[in-house]
Design brief:
By secondary structure, this protein is α/β, with parallel strands linked by helices. It has 10 helices and 8 strands. The chain has one domain (8-43, 61-281, 299-318). It has helices spanning 25-34, 36-41, 92-112, 142-147, 160-169, 182-190, 192-195, 235-245, 282-289, 305-318, and strands spanning 8-14, 58-59, 78-85, 118-125, 152-154, 209-216, 254-258, 293-297.
Length: 323
Amino acid sequence: MNTSFNTHIVAITLVGLSALGCAGESDIFDDVESMGEIAMNGDDGDDDDDGGEDGQPERADGGGGEDEGGLELEPCVAVDLLFVVDNSDTMAEEQAKLLAGAGAFISDSAALLPADIDFHIGVVTTDSADLVRHDLQGVDCNFFSEQGLPFMTHAGAMNTSLDTGLGCAAVVGVAGSPDERPIEMALSALGPGANLPEGANPGFVRDDAVLVLVLLTDEEDDHETVTGWGSAGEPQDWSDELIELVGGVEERAVILSLVGHDKPNACPGFQWDGKDGAELAPRLVEFTQGFTHGVVGDVCASSYADFFAQAAVEVAGACGVAG
């Protein structure tokens, strides 16, 4: 392990379990408008389960604040947070719930970290590894028009500018490809080529930052041999490549997945019919649980608040701070 390379991973995977079939983009904005204040204060007044037995997110067995050799984790100095959002036609509800919880998640994470920690926050979709810079009407997001950056920057408590940026970039619509490739898009977006000045996402990834990866999709990432759809490779291959991208610091990797997991969950009894519910995602569950800070939750829940609250603690733990 290259311990001199001071980059760390926090990967948070949200694989949507509840979806609205063929919802129009106007429906998303209706949901977002009704949730505007929720994103600022992190409380949606809903105590519904986020999944897992007894309604609790399922934490991987290996969780802990030290690596396997007992070495004390070095505190982080920055956080790079990437959302990978499924923009296929069943994802309107999940995008609204993501936006409702994202602001509080960032604020809660920041509150647990040293005051001088700053965030880079970007969004890509499951069919493109380029950071989102425009809203659904093609209007530049505020961070792009004002700062010329393809990502948001943030330090401290939630603020109006960040809330506006999330509302612009995180609601990616439902007109994307049905070929969802969340892992492939994540690895491509974070790759060294994308981070170069001439790359798609210049300057997003920093060598000294914890890397937070949030995946939101309602289907398994399963590579289909006939169509070629889905991310190639096996969960261990994905883990190996992700860890290699950040210098091999697995003990600071946190994978938090809201996925189509086995019952009990809040999905319909039939689980998934291609339109409602969510497809079981054993590959993404395996990917998640292969990390020390891996947590699996249920995106069919009507609120992500509890899940994001635990996610903030995992970020702090991966950053060498007790949550």
